[in-house]
């Protein structure tokens, strides 16, 4: 067999605000790989099937010298994110061709890793991969969404910090994380207020069980919270003025679960308008990253969430785009809130 194209998506330029497809990231088809004969050096050859596109990727499209909780992508090198691939060839004991793996994968069609414990490529560090088996009632894509990092973020963050009371306000309630938080909060017996940016998403949040769902672009958040609050829990995915409003209409001792602040990813973060409310209302503000909770709550996620996903009790939506060349477009769509459900790029079929 002749060498196959091994297209890649490269980090090409640091964006000033929104990432620009074809400029911030570029689709490169200059490389090939002889998948039948390329040396594996004891490792495995993976065909990339699915890639997750999440809001946090925007934070990695920055200059390397700017510190953050995750390293910057390397200019001139492929992006990488959570993904699912299938092993085409293996020299690693116990891993056979046809095995599926989950973890951080390069945004390219084929990749070689030294083993499932560690892998590397020029200029990037690739996190551990793990063998994954699919429940026949779930598509592989679900393991990048409701059964994967977003679902685990929702469940584990809620379990760790919510101490459920009466009223919860969930921003980005139609997203891959927020949608599951709505359902978990309802299962805990809370009144749920949820916001999103389109009428279609408002309808979806109501289908998930939200008691009050509104479009923040056409309805003032303070008007809603004044009528439906005060709130005991705020699940924050957006920050900015929505966070300020939540603080204004929070009960004493309310709990703020800081999962993300997408309003600041492209145009900079705005300071809190009234930080004195933190001590004035004795607010509990918890920022978290999934990596610090996963070891603690993974078993509970497997027993509490997975059966409900398999049975259909817990609902989710996916927004799947076909083609590695569309990664840049999907990154931009996620930043602008144009996706409906978990954003995934299908690189290839098996």
TrEMBL record:
InterPro entries found in the cross-reference section: ADH-like_C, ADH_N_2, ER, GroES-like_sf, MDR_fam, NAD(P)-bd_dom_sf
Pfam families attached to this UniProt entry: ADH_N_2, ADH_zinc_N
CDD domains: PGDH
Coiled coil: none
UniProt keyword terms in alphabetical order: Oxidoreductase
Superkingdom of origin organism: Eukaryota
GO MF entries: oxidoreductase activity, acting on the CH-CH group of donors, NAD or NADP as acceptor
Domain Enoyl reductase (ER), residue spans: 43-345
SMART domains, per the entry: PKS_ER
Keyword ATP-binding set for record: no
Keyword Oxidoreductase: yes
Protein name as it appears in the record: PKS-ER domain-containing protein
């Amino acid at each position: 067999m002749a060498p196959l194209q091994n297209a890649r998506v490269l980090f090409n330029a640091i964006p000033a605000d929104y990432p620009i497809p074809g400029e911030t990231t570029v689709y490169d088809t200059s490389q090939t790989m002889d998948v039948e004969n390329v040396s594996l050096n004891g490792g495995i050859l993976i065909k990339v099937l699915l890639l997750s596109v999440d809001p946090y990727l925007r934070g990695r499209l920055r200059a390397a010298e700017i510190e953050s909780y995750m390293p910057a992508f390397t200019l001139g090198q492929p992006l990488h994110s959570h993904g699912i691939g299938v092993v085409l060839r293996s020299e690693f004991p116990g891993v056979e061709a046809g095995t599926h793996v989950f973890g951080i994968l390069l945004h390219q069609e084929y990749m070689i890793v030294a083993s499932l414990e560690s892998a590397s490529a020029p200029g990037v560090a690739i996190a551990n991969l793990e063998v994954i088996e699919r429940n026949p009632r779930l598509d592989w894509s679900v393991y990048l969404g409701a059964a994967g990092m977003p679902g685990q973020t929702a469940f584990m963050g809620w379990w760790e910090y919510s101490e459920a009371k009466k009223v919860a306000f969930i921003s980005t309630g139609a997203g891959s994380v927020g949608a599951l938080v709505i359902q978990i909060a309802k299962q805990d017996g809370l009144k749920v207020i949820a916001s999103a940016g389109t009428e279609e998403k408002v309808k979806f949040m109501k289908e998930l069980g939200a008691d009050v769902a509104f479009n923040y672009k056409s309805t003032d958040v303070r008007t809603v919270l004044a009528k439906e609050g005060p709130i005991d829990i705020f699940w924050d995915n957006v920050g900015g003025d929505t966070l300020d409003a939540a603080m204004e209409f929070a009960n004493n001792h309310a709990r703020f679960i800081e999962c993300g602040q997408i309003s600041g990813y492209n145009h900079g973060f705005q300071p809190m308008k009234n930080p004195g409310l933190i001590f004035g209302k004795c607010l509990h503000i918890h920022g978290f990253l999934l990596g610090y909770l996963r070891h603690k709550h993974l078993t509970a996620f497997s027993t509490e969430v997975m059966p409900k996903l398999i049975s259909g009790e817990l609902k989710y939506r996916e927004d799947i785009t076909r083609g590695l060349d569309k990664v840049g477009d999907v990154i931009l769509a996620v930043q602008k809130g144009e996706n409906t459900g978990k954003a995934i790029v299908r690189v290839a079929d098996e």
